[in-house]
Amino acid sequence: MSFLNGGADRTGQAEVVRLTPERGAEIIELDQIVWAASPTAERARLSIEALDMSRTIGVEEPGGRLAAIASAWAFDTPVPGGRVDAGGLTWVGVRPECRRRGYLRALVERHWADCRERGEAVSMLFSSQLPIYGRFGYGTASSGVGLTLPKGASLRPLPESAKAGPAVDLRFETVSFEAHGALVDAIEQQAGYGPARRPGWTACTTSAAWRLMLEDEKPAGPRLEAGRIAISERAGLPTGYALVRRDGNWESGNPAGTLTIRAFQALDPASGYALWDLLVNMDLNTKVITPLLTLDDPLFGWLEDWRSQSVTLRDGLHVRLVDLPAALTARRYALPIDLRLAVTDRLVSENAGVWVLQAGPDAATCRRVADLDESETDVSLDIRQLGAIYLGGIGALGLMDAGLIHERTPGAVEFLSRAFRGARDPAVWPVF
Questions:
Q1: What is the average pLDDT across 298-323?
Q2: pTM of the entire structure?
Q3: How many domains does the chain divide into?
């Protein structure tokens, strides 16, 4: 793929190319420039090893300079009532002086083409800056909150019925890939594909990615420790974990440390409760910073007063339907529906048009109807809004209230909203 660079002089050509491990130094240099980062040589090596080079692409300008990059991971992702193959867009970056030349759009469109070739019906990402990806048809499919808790934050007593079974044992250790990689991966797989699976869940897909996740590079500073892991077990079997880092700050001779939780997962209420009780009561800390949490996270049921804490709201997963009929038939719906949807998609023409979605709890079909125009449909919406409601966490009625979804048949949007809703809130933060 080649295209005009669109720069001020509008001369020359740039080309989207496949990257190879031999260009690792260029990739790291570009990444450092884009993200203002300075990883160690070992960290940089692991980063290249963690990439799926079969789908790592870049924009090469005349003369061979690498001006932009993007990569992706393949995910088998839970959706309401089913699973979908998804391409996780990552490592996206454009050199500061090369912005507004169409490079990002070229990379994103090549990523979509790769997704379609691989049978991945949707593309997902976590956005570093919220405004960027909406213009490419990505809808904000989940949101969550981060909490800053004081040490000793009060938890309600866990009901006896939730304690049934073996007692919970806890371990607190220095984390390493060799000691904990298989354990954390096993817990994540059970959480992601078990009965309580969460739509949009993702996890590392390679050992190198797990190593990067677990062995988070130690920041500079004498009072910042290496990463630790808290592990819960029942009858000798791992049932939960938390990746944490503490600082050793003191103020006026008193401990004033912060414990930051990088990732958390528990497979049952007793294990989750025991882990949180350990973390919020750890000595030498005055506050605990949680990862981004879904609003149905058990912690909100256990905290006596989470409202009085420092609360940060932010977006989570962004979803883009790349193959509309495949995406809509991969999931299931809360009630039977038979709706005619007029969908606009200015970047993927195959998605635009009138679609008849006939679906329910057990099956789904979606077909294009050529002999209907928009005036004969029930609901009109853009692909961005379809991505927003896809995982079941965002209601279509709210988007209609915002003027982003148009109803032609009275009651159709309420029906659409109820049908698309999932039993659990979608994931809000990646484990990769």
A1: 92
A2: 0.93
A3: 3
